[in-house]
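MFS transporter
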Amino acid sequence: MQVIDDLKALWPLRDFRKLFAVRLVSQCGDGMFQVGLATLFFFSPEKASTAVGVATAFAVLLLPFTIVGPWAGVLLDRWRRRQVLLYGNLTRVVVTSVIALVMVTQGATPLVYVLALVNLSINRFLLAALSASLPRVVDGPLLLTANSLTPTLGTAASVAGGGIGFLLGMVLPTGRVRDASALVLAAAVMACAAALAARIGRDRLGPEARADAAQLRAALGTLARGLVAGARHLVERRTPARALGIMAVHRFLYGVVFIASLLISRNLLSDPLDANAGLATFASVLGASGVGFFAAVILTPVVTPKVGPHTWIVLCLTLAAVSQAVLVAWYSLPVILVAAAALGLAAQGAKIAVDTIVQRDTDDAFRGRAFAIYDVLYNAAFVGAAALAAALLPDTGYSRALFAALAAGYAAGAVVYGAASRRTPARVELERQAV
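Tokens:
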């Protein structure tokens, strides 16, 4: 199996193993935490059963991430990324524990929502640090392999953590103690991630040049200019800017599909009054997406070396278009599961290629800012998708016209990106590959 062969190739890299362990454990804890939030925000009987309610909840959760992103870029280019992984996870342990305490003593108060936003914002910061750190422990042809494995298996770890949280919720009696128990377990897993990060050398993950306190304050004070410089660098390098642009489009369209799937699971394929049945249906849709993610980790390392990352992105967008075109005619659960698996393959396959392009074609001094901009675009696109879903989706989540538009959007993205990639001079592309 290709994934096993890829792991065997990467396994001799000691620092890769350490960073990989941090990602798996950290994302497992995050999956536990997010399942608790999903139950609270979307699958409580009194919560978010309408398109506007679901879209609003997503906007509230994701808007702070677009604010965190730019600051993350400045810090990741100046702070030791290993320290970010260590202290970021420790901070999440404290925040999650406080949320658990508030849940036991007071219930789901506004403070829970505020602390949840803080926790999720820190997680996005950690994911950016993990991505920016990867080229420090893997280089050459193995970087594509690492990019194929680490995000996808990290997502699998998150799904596994979510499954543990879901099962825990089914076993324990309903009430505040059950909610707090899942959070306490998530905090324990985050503490393990911090301990694993401590095994990595303080300077191993870069960056090469770091700033003292005065320089850091100056950098934060000139944040806008730093981001502009990072964006200018990406544009000058051409391929990373184009890759980020198509990923933003992909994420926007995917966000609309995700919210539609949640509403279809809750209000069309299940009794709207039975929140547990809706959650179970949506879990099956997420499971199908997970199958697509795993398919991406197997196919991407096999196909990309033969056709190149740009062509692979075009193929993924084409597959996404087909997955949505099918839903124009049918919306039964089996059809939706097949479409979810295909879209999961397309989304993860494209993301692996984009990650590789951005990491390969961006100088290390700008890499933290590149992934911060990536993070902003990634989440802002989903917020935009939430706004569109609130305006256009019925509460059942199903609209033939909207799914037709989504299919057309993916197809247009494939055509435009493919044409732009073909216009890139061969000399420029060879220079990028040599970096």
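The chain has one domain: 2-434.
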